[in-house]
Write a structure and sequence with these properties.
This protein is an alpha/beta fold and 498 residues long. Helix content is 47%, strand content 14%. A hairpin with a 2-residue loop joins strand 13 and strand 14. It starts with a strand and ends in an 11-residue tail after the last helix.
């Protein structure tokens, strides 16, 4: 263990001595420690505010809504965010869930024709010490053009760096006797080693910000950006970030979030599963917010999700910010002539056309084979690099629309599927992987969270199965867990002897 002033840093993981020494120089550790010391208490305050907000909703029985305190800001149509840099003008297709510790896939993505790469230290990544160090080191190599056969960073897909969310902790570093916030650890190292080079190459630094729940959290990130630009001698407003709107609370504060980040925003992003899980997290004790079987009744065509996407596009485009959609999780079969291939392609096309017609400026895919077909889809149905001219003045979204739970029940298939995803995610996590493949699509911590949350909520409300009218109980779930574990032996790689 290395100790530097009030900093304690664990030694290098096995096989990563060079990477560790490269990243953790005396200068970078001092920068990281100062960053963390400056903002650590504010991170704690943000987390306390989240708890207080949830308790307030529970105790009062109130509902999320648009705040009267910020109504003037929302109603003022004159303010706009700074225009995004040239390299972010076209965001048609980003590659999602790309854990940069997976060197082979990272190189494939850098060689691809995608507009961007979500370099993921969050949902698609398991944040072991080894994965964080290897992943950040691989970003450094990419920025310095040290991967063979990869275009220079100014020509490669844009790196959209996604640090961990506020609730994640880095256990291998302590500052002032306390383990450090995961997002500050990731952000600090990425910026210290790559910020200047990315600016010089007009390719960043660009970020995705996960799990933001309020404009106060956006304000904190903005203060971190300003501080970092000043400390590293970067031009003001050079850091740009896309905020992932993954909480029902944030949906009611999208204008406010853009306003707080107006000099540093690259736009907002909408997805489906973390957002849906937030209803269970914030309101799941109430039977009125029972979320039905996601495998049958939850999709972007439902009112609460369609309204969320429409409002996000309208809000962004009114302010001159880009609006991007979620990730296509389906995997294309290798046999391009098979009926299954055409079926998957048709499903992805239909869902992504919903987003294009809503006015999004881009979305993500996991499967690299989907990049070119979906780029062609954008080119065929849109004009120019983005849809900022689509202002969606036709959209009128009410709080009731945003909070309208879809009708439907729970099937035995849906319950079993959620349990299987939960089991397989735990196995993946314990073996250092942040995502896995199951039944033709990628699953990550977002789908694991919605799966876990739904099972909890169905037990909590003793929901009856559509199939046979059995009530979902803890004993039923436990029996299904054992049954499904036996069925999943081919998937499970955990070895208890290791």
């Amino acid at each position: 263990m290395t100790t530097l002033a009030a900093v304690e840093l664990e030694n290098a993981p096995q096989g990563l001595q060079h990477e560790h020494e490269t990243l953790f120089t005396a200068e970078s550790v001092c920068f990281l420690a100062e960053l963390i010391s400056t903002f650590d208490k504010q991170v704690d305050e943000i987390l306390r505010h989240r708890v207080a907000r949830k308790m307030e909703l529970e105790q009062t029985g109130g509902l999320p809504g648009f705040s009267s305190l910020t109504s003037r800001l929302r109603e003022d149509r004159t303010w706009r965010v700074l225009p995004v840099p040239e390299r972010l003008q076209n965001r048609h297709v980003d590659i999602g869930d790309l854990a940069p510790s997976d060197t082979e896939r990272f190189i494939q993505a850098l060689r691809s024709k995608a507009q961007g790469i979500q370099v993921d230290f969050d949902d698609g990544n398991c944040p072991t010490y080894s994965n964080q160090i290897k992943g950040i080191f691989n970003v450094c190599k990419a920025v310095r053009n040290q991967f063979q056969g990869v275009p220079p960073i100014s020509k490669a897909p844009v790196l959209m760096l996604r640090p961990r969310a506020w609730n994640m902790v880095e256990h291998n570093m302590m500052v002032n006797g306390k383990e450090v916030p995961g997002p500050l650890f990731d952000f600090g190292l990425l910026m210290y080693h790559n910020g200047k080079l990315l600016v010089e190459n007009k390719s960043g630094p660009f970020f995705y910000l996960s799990k933001v729940e309020s404009y106060l959290e956006a304000r904190l990130w903005n203060n971190i950006f300003i501080w970092t630009e000043q400390k590293l001698g970067l031009p003001a407003c050079s850091i740009k970030a896309t905020v992932l709107i993954e909480s029902i609370l944030a949906t009611f504060e999208m204008d406010e979030i853009l306003f707080e980040l107006r000099d540093h925003t690259a736009g907002l992003n909408c997805g489906i599963w973390d957002y849906s899980a937030s209803f269970v997290n914030k309101l799941g004790d109430r039977s009125a917010f029972l979320l039905p079987d996601r495998s049958k009744y939850v999709n972007m065509e439902k009112l609460f999700l369609q309204s969320y996407m429409d409002l996000l596009v309208q809000t962004c485009h009114r302010r001159g910010a880009l609006a991007t959609g979620g990730m296509a999780a389906l995997l294309l079969p290798n046999d391009t002539q098979s009926a299954h291939y055409h079926s998957v392609m048709a499903t992805v096309t239909r869902l992504k056309m919903l987003e294009i017609n809503a006015g999004v400026d881009g979305f993500m895919v996991y499967d690299l084979k989907l990049i070119e077909p979906l780029q062609k889809l954008f080119q065929k149905h849109t004009l120019g690099p983005n849809q900022l001219h689509i202002l969606r003045e036709d959209v009128v979204v009410t709080p009731e629309d945003l909070l309208a739970m879809p009708s439907g029940g729970v099937t035995l298939h849906g319950l079993r599927y959620n349990i299987a995803v939960g089991i397989l995610f735990i196995e993946a996590w314990l073996t250092g992987r942040g995502h896995f493949f199951y039944r033709g699509q990628v699953e990550d911590s977002a789908t694991a969270e919605i799966s876990r949350s739904q099972v909890w909520q169905w037990i909590r409300h003793q929901v009856k199965l559509e199939d046979d009218d059995r009530a979902i109980s803890r004993s039923l779930v436990k029996s299904l867990v054992e049954e499904i574990r036996r069925e999943l032996q081919d998937f499970l790689q955990c070895n208890t002897e290791k």
